[in-house]
Amino acid sequence: METSKLQKSLQKLNIQDVNKGTSTGSKSFGNGELIASYSPVDGKLIGKVISTTKQDYEKVIESAQKAFTTWRLVPAPQRGEIVRQFGDKLRELKQPLGELVSYEMGKSLQEGLGEVQEMIDICDFAVGLSRQLHGLTMHSERPGHRMYEQYHSLGIVGIISAFNFPVAVWSWNTALAWICGDVCVWKASEKAPLCSIACQHIIANILKENNLPEGISCIVNGDYKVGEFMTTDKRIPLISATGSIKMGKIVAKTVAERLGRSLLELGGNNAIIITPNADLKISIIGAVFGAVGTAGQRCTSTRRLIIHESMYEQVKNTLVDAYKQLRIGNPLDEKNHVGPLIDKDAVKMYENALKKVVEEGGNLLVEGGVLKGEGYESGCYVKPAIAEAKNAFEIVQHETFAPILYLIKYSGEVENAIEIQNGVVQGLSSAIMTTNLREAEKFLSVAGSDCGIANVNIGTSGAEIGGAFGGEKETGGGRESGSDAWKIYMRRQTNTINYTSNLPLAQGIKFDL
Ligand code: NAD
């Protein structure tokens, strides 16, 4: 993509001028240090944002609290109407926002546009949901009594997000939180801060046009220290945090100390099982896309391939051939399959992992390496690698956020493969490639995959909005997006109404005066 075209797109998002600050609605302010955002695509400075000081933070929370008292009284379908307008605006701005995601984060343009599409999809989902948000009614044991439950708005939702989905994760949370009557304060990743400024501009204009309080959507900028303002803050009943397991363990403890609620979406160590009954063609496409898409920087990226010994050589050779076709380069150029890693620290982690797997006895089938020269000036482009490994290797047990795929052999029945697949601390996404009904059903059964996502004949990445998204074990147990994930954004109340002139007590207790 030409630079001038990209600049025009950035202008459309109004993020051209540097030094954007903390924001409540459309007001931008801030007194903290500047955070520079460099593109991993070409190493150039895109812009700077002002980090949020404690004083700035207090202003934001005040504004959010004030907005909540109004917003919770707006009927849910009318809140849905605001989310509908937001979704429409995203449709209009899909191309420039997708380009910004691709340029600031480094994923391919197709994936950047896909991320904005996810935002649009969750808005549509939330609009429909705004006419539901239903509780149950139940029969009371007492005569002349009615019992039911209802869901009320919770308050401020604090959103802490990771760099790799710099816009979608926010919208998965906000679209639902807004229709639930909550207000949101977002701390985006310090590695992709301009994406959050662009999103804030879009929603702030919609709130203004509708004469709604600006504090319904707020952003704060900065690193983990700004995140800690939120996790320690009793005024925020729900913290939704997406990121590494290391971060999640700290956030969970901090929020639990004040008995707050947390929704955790943490790291994965996702595997595809390839059984003797697999369709090889779709298995290879699923594995390659899962391993190298977004340069291996998806929480659902395929990290491990667990292959039956009878298929092992064939799968291995086909994969090695497939990797030779991969084009690595500028992600805004649609001819390329693999873009850069987010920064040079990520490159170091990738190099360390490759060193470590060899030290532990692994065998590199496709050697990696950092690319240098024209087009690779940012120093963030690496070659996708494949290593033969054992599940017990320490490095295999760990999520390396880079395009490294480990091949693991299994023998005997599918149960053996499932045991390997479950033999990690993470529990996000999993898949089996098989045309055998018994194998597929075993994998999906209670004794099968222990992950939050379990797929048959598709890869580990690329979840749809309609289902609840999240994982078990050290992935954190949170669920976002579809199904009934909205319930965490509301508080549940059970109501019992007596429409008689008597006061019968529950459990048959007598209390006569
Ligand atoms: P990270 O943990 O380094 O940072 C994530 C966010 O947490 C950032 O905004 C950061 O500033 C903040 N943070 C860090 N420490 C904090 C603390 N102590 N208190 C408050 N906030 C804190 O993660 P990253 O490198 O940006 O993202 C990659 C990780 O995110 C991977 O592990 C990936 O699997 C995971 N991820 C998970 C999902 C999911 O849905 N399960 C989705 C995307 C990414």
TrEMBL record:
| Protein origin, superkingdom | Bacteria
Judged by the first EC level, this protein's enzyme class is oxidoreductase
Query: Which InterPro entries does the protein's record reference?
Result: Ald_DH/histidinol_DH (IPR016161), Ald_DH_C (IPR016163), Ald_DH_CS_GLU (IPR029510), Ald_DH_N (IPR016162), Aldehyde_DH_dom (IPR015590), ALDH7A1-like (IPR044638)
Which EC number(s) does UniProt give? 1.2.1.3
Keywords from UniProt, A to Z, are: NAD, Oxidoreductase
Which Pfam families does the record associate with it?
Aldedh (PF00171)
Q: Residue ranges of the Aldehyde dehydrogenase domain?
A: 33-494
* Positions annotated as active site in the UniProt record: 265
Please provide, alphabetically and separated by semicolons, the GO molecular function terms listed in this UniProt record.
aldehyde dehydrogenase (NAD+) activity
UniProt record similarity statement: Belongs to the aldehyde dehydrogenase family.
- Can you state the subunit structure given in the record? Homotetramer.
Under which name does UniProt file this protein? Answer: aldehyde dehydrogenase (NAD(+))
Lineage of the organism: Bacteria, Pseudomonadati, Bacteroidota, Flavobacteriia, Flavobacteriales
